[in-house]
Design brief:
234 residues; 4-stranded antiparallel beta sheet; alpha+beta
Length: 234
């Protein structure tokens, strides 16, 4: 009887001690005695909340700075600014040939200066051509062509272009004396022709005729209004 009374509390203490032993892991190992045994450590929970709060604060500050203009916004997917994209789209409408290339390509197909039946009397000059008036991006531009070894009264003709595409000549035939061509706008040209009147010398003609050439965007064709030298009206 005395032995039972002594052993009972001793056994109770052993059970309490056994309860405090580290619990076994499912794979057979034991927890580290230094690891928090009751789920997530309070300090880890606190650090997680602090990290999330810091992230939100940084994002809010960055958004405010972006709205204030302190940071540049994201670039376009194409890598171009809107102005550059617009310029590129406009450039795609331009012709591919330069003025010199257009002149060398189309002058040889012109009707000879003195007519198809008089090729031996002269040829168009393909070497000394002013192509500065040609614009491969303009709705309407021109190149004035003269004959080889031209004098003041030698034949001339005007080749017309739309964005580098050859439209034809301004008149059905050549005309004497170099014309004056003035640009009105991107699609309109004023041409003043000179011709001799009765009694005029070939070096000093007094007759003039002015025509306006326009590219009609709606009709999709070249239009001409005004006067032409008398011999071109026949």
């Amino acid at each position: 009887m005395r032995r039972r009374l002594i052993d009972a509390p001793y056994k109770h203490r052993r059970k309490r001690f056994a309860f405090a032993q580290p619990r076994s892991r499912p794979h057979g190992g034991t927890r580290s005695p230094h690891r928090w045994p009751y789920g997530k450590h309070p300090r880890s929970h606190f650090m997680g909340r602090l990290t999330r709060l810091s992230t939100r604060t940084t994002a809010a500050a960055a958004g405010a700075l972006l709205l204030a203009g302190g940071i540049a916004g994201p670039a376009m997917a194409s890598g171009q600014a809107p102005e550059a994209a617009t310029s590129s789209a406009a450039a795609s409408d331009c012709g591919l040939e330069t003025g010199d290339q257009a002149a060398q390509r189309w002058i040889p197909v012109l009707t000879p200066p003195f007519g198809a039946d008089h090729e031996e009397q002269g040829a168009w000059d393909t070497k000394n051509v002013d192509t500065s008036t040609y614009d491969q991006c303009a709705e309407l531009s021109w190149i004035t062509v003269k004959t080889e070894g031209a004098t003041a009264s030698s034949p001339s003709t005007i080749m017309l272009f739309r964005k580098g595409a050859y439209l034809g000549t301004a008149t059905n035939g050549s005309f004497g004396f170099a014309p004056d061509v003035d640009r009105v706008d991107d699609s309109t040209l004023d041409v003043t022709f000179h011709y001799p009147q009765d009694g005029d010398s070939n070096a000093d003609p007094h007759g003039t005729a002015t025509s306006t050439y326009s590219w009609d965007q709606d009709a999709g064709k070249l239009t001409q209004e005004g006067q032409l030298p008398p011999h071109l009206n026949n």
